[in-house]
Design goal:
Blueprint (H helix, E strand, L loop, with lengths): L4 E5 L5 H11 L7 H9 L3 E8 L2 E10 L5 E9 L8 H15 L4 E7 L3 H9 L3 E6 L9 E7 L13 E2 L2 E2 L2
Helix pairs in contact: 1-2
Length: 170
């Protein structure tokens, strides 16, 4: 039987799982518990959770600026034991769908220049380099800014079960 996965909106009930994901997913530049709670409860942001067979195995945080058509992928993390199953791609498509739902026409993100696996995934999904960010990370590591334009006119994306204001995101 194939594993079942779904993407949903995160809530404060996911806080412990998010803290765990930060610890197993990032060696440095992690969100602290208080920061994650703020992002879940108060920030102008959306936290998306990917589950497989009922287990939280990844998350993404999209940040929104008022009066902006750009959604910012603030963070995306997968439990390393779940990598290679297409869940990162599923989560990324849900982030793009959330941006479209909000009327966005682009998604931007920053990624460590030495994170070849993540860069490869973003490139496969149509993200392009927009510039280097020397010293961007706390350890002095270089970041890369990547952007993808979203075509809102005739988009035929896979429908994901991600509610937004009571509606499923197309």
């Amino acid at each position: 039987m194939a594993a079942q996965s779904m993407v949903r909106i995160g809530t404060a009930k996911d806080l412990d799982a998010l803290v765990r994901l930060e610890k197993v997913g990032f060696a440095a530049d992690r969100f602290e518990r208080e920061q994650l709670l703020y992002l879940l409860a108060k920030a102008h942001a959306t936290t998306l959770i990917v589950e497989q067979d009922g287990q939280v195995c990844g998350a993404a945080i999209m940040a929104w600026r008022r009066n902006s058509s750009v959604g910012r992928l603030y963070s995306i993390v997968l439990d390393p034991t779940f990598q290679g199953r297409g869940l990162g791609s599923k989560l990324l498509r849900a982030c793009e769908a959330a941006a479209r739902q909000r009327g966005g026409d682009r998604v931007s993100l920053e990624v460590r220049a030495d994170n070849r696996r993540a860069i490869g995934m973003y490139e496969r999904h149509g993200y392009r380099m927009k510039g280097a960010l020397p010293g961007y990370y706390a350890d002095g590591g270089t970041g890369l800014r990547m952007v993808k334009g979203l075509d809102n006119r005739n988009h035929t994306a896979v429908r994901l079960n991600v509610p937004h204001n009571g509606h499923e995101i197309p």
